[in-house]
């Protein structure tokens, strides 16, 4: 459709045109059932088969081992800020019924505004002390900016936490962990002890980087979660990859003194019902399924990893050039920049406004930085084509002339 423009928005964000075209057909008539996808029963055999297929597409492409369940829920990343705390406090209680609740510790790695928010929710819920393992702001010049992944030596994990939380890609701040273990900006998996937990309760928010490349050390994670609305579909669907030992009887834990867990937030409810405890977001699931089928046809995550790497590298190269000319300023330190959300400033009074207006005039939108930090943010999710990135780069080169 020629009326469509390049949408670099951070979420909800662009979806592949071929998927949208197919989805419009499914909206009218889902798989020849004569009923549209937004109207069909979530208990119909056709929908249940579709959901099963979505699960196996994720399992295959991410290589999820049999130790982990794939669950679907709602409430976005924000609901998981609460759910991970409640479920893993329950797990911890069942493992250690004799321990004093006040001594329970929740470890948070804070590298941006989303992990900061998750830590705040853990504090609000109580049930454990929040230990900030590291706060990356201490490494910024101003002491206030989330602009790098901290060095491994700065992490202060507690000996036996109920959970260890990090956010793989900070959507607002444009800071992302490297997937190369040799990089100083990688997550320090080698420092995780596990204490008396037989298995490390490592939790990762993958909301804005899910399915853009393989997940390293996936099997070492307790919970990985992501909202669908960046790389794989419309808002409404949240995907969870949960290790079996984290799917616990929350009512048994409540009898031992933990906070009762709302049924819709309990991982056991989701697992026992095949993610169909209540009505799921059928339309979101449908579109996510179409996106994942398309990904499979295009060669799976390897293909997307290569393409996304290329897209990010050429954009960063253009920004470096603009920086050299004194026109642009990257906001994230070298080595910690995200592939998915690239953030920078345009130097000078009203320069940012001029940059954004020029982009709009050339058919490129969604480039305004998050309201909390300002600046420019380019989101390069899977559906952003290389041609669109090239179009943006051509404009940046013209602008910095
Ligand atoms: N975590 C990350 C990394 C995010 O980018 C977002 C949303 N942009 C959230 C959590 C919150 O997700 P939601 O809006 O789906 O609740």
Verbal overview:
This protein is an alpha/beta fold. The chain has 2 domains: 45-295, Aspartate Aminotransferase, domain 2 (3-Layer(aba) Sandwich); 300-400, Alpha-Beta Complex (Aspartate Aminotransferase, domain 1), CATH 3.90.1150. It contains 10 helices and 14 strands. It has helices at 17-28, 45-62, 76-95, 113-125, 250-255, 267-272, 282-297, 300-324, 351-361, 386-400, and strands at 6-7, 68-73, 105-110, 129-135, 163-167, 169-170, 175-176, 202-205, 223-227, 238-243, 328-330, 341-346, 364-365, 376-379. The protein has a 7-stranded mixed β-sheet, with helices on both faces. A 3-stranded antiparallel β-sheet has the order 11-12-14. The protein has a two-stranded parallel ribbon with strand order 1-13. Helix 1 (17-28) crosses helix 7, helix 3 packs across helix 4 (113-125) and helix 8 (300-324) packs parallel to helix 10 (386-400). The longest helix has 25 residues, at 300-324. The radius of gyration is 22 Å and the shape is globular. The model has no long low-confidence stretch (mean pLDDT 96). Residues 11, 76-78, 114, 167, 171, 205, 207-208, 227 line the site of 4'-deoxy-4'-aminopyridoxal-5'-phosphate. 4'-deoxy-4'-aminopyridoxal-5'-phosphate (PMP) is lined by residues 11, 76-78, 114, 167, 171, 205, 207-208, 227. Residues 7-392 form the Aminotransferase class V domain. Pathway: Amino-acid biosynthesis; L-serine biosynthesis; L-serine from 3-phospho-D-glycerate: step 2/3. It comes from Fibroporia radiculosa.
């Amino acid at each position: 459709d020629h009326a469509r423009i390049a949408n670099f928005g951070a979420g909800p964000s662009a979806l592949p045109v071929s998927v949208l075209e197919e989805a419009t057909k499914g909206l009218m008539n889902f798989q020849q059932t004569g009923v549209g996808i937004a109207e069909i029963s979530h208990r119909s055999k056709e929908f249940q088969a579709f959901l099963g297929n979505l699960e196996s597409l994720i399992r295959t492409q991410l290589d999820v081992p049999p130790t982990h369940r794939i669950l679907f829920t709602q409430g976005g990343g924000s609901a998981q800020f609460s759910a991970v705390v409640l479920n893993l406090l329950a797990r911890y209680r069942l493992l250690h019924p004799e321990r004093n609740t006040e001594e329970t510790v929740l470890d948070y790695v804070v590298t941006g505004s989303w992990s900061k928010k998750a830590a705040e929710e853990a504090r609000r819920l109580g049930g454990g002390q929040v230990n900030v393992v590291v706060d990356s702001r201490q490494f910024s010049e101003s002491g206030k900016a989330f602009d790098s992944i901290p060095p491994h030596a700065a992490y202060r994990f507690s000996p036996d936490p109920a959970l260890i939380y990090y956010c793989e890609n900070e959507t607002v701040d444009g800071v992302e962990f490297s997937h190369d273990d040799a990089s100083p900006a990688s997550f320090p998996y080698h420092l995780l002890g596990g204490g008396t937990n037989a298995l490390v309760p490592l939790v990762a928010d993958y909301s804005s980087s899910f399915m853009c490349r393989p997940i390293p050390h996936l099997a070492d994670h307790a919970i990985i979660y992501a909202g669908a609305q960046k790389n794989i579909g419309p808002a409404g669907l949240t995907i969870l990859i949960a290790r079996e030992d984290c799917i616990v009887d929350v009512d048994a834990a409540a009898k031992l003194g933990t906070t009762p867990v709302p049924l819709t937030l309990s991982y056991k409810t989701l697992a026992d019902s095949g993610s169909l405890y209540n009505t799921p977001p059928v339309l979101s699931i449908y579109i996510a399924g179409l996106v994942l089928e398309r990904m499979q046809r295009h060669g799976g995550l390897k293909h997307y990893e290569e393409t996304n790497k290329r897209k990010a590298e050429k954009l960063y190269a253009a920004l470096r050039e603009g920086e050299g000319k004194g026109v642009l300023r990257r906001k994230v330190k070298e080595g910690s920049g995200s592939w998915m959300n690239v953030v920078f400033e345009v130097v000078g009074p009203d320069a940012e406004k001029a940059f954004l207006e020029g982009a709009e005039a050339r058919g490129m939108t969604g480039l305004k930085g998050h309201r909390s930090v300002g600046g420019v943010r380019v989101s390069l999710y899977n559906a952003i084509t290389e041609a669109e990135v090239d179009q943006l780069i051509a404009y940046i080169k013209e602008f910095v002339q």
